[in-house]
Structures are given as C-alpha cells and as structure tokens.
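Small protein often clustered with efflux pumps
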Amino acid sequence: MPVKGTGTRLDPVCNMDVTGRDVEYKVNYRGREYYFCSYDCMKKFEENPEKYLSFHSQESAV
Ligand SMILES: [Zn+2]
C-alpha cells in the first residue's frame, strides 16, 4: 500500500492526523518535531512527553 512518507503528522496526545493543517502547535523533543491539533494537546505533551510517546509506540507495535 502506498505510503506518503513524511507527509503524515500525528498528534501524539489525541492521535489526530494534523497533516495539511496550519500547524502552529509544535514541540521539538529529543530532536524530533511533534505536532498538535491544539494548544491544549501541546501543553499536555509538554507536561509529560514520555507518557504519550510510550503510548504511541505501544500502539504501533501491535
Ligand atoms: Zn490533539
């Protein structure tokens, strides 16, 4: 199946696809950029990034 590579950006907090939006909420964490649908999600991520990153990798590992 075709994959668009770098085009997809998932909000790690709510798992919303933010591709193609005007992404004004982003955080650089450990050299990677993370994008968020809202200020609220961004703040949640900043408060506890590991929580959302481990949740996300757990999901894609299944
Ligand atoms: Zn969100």
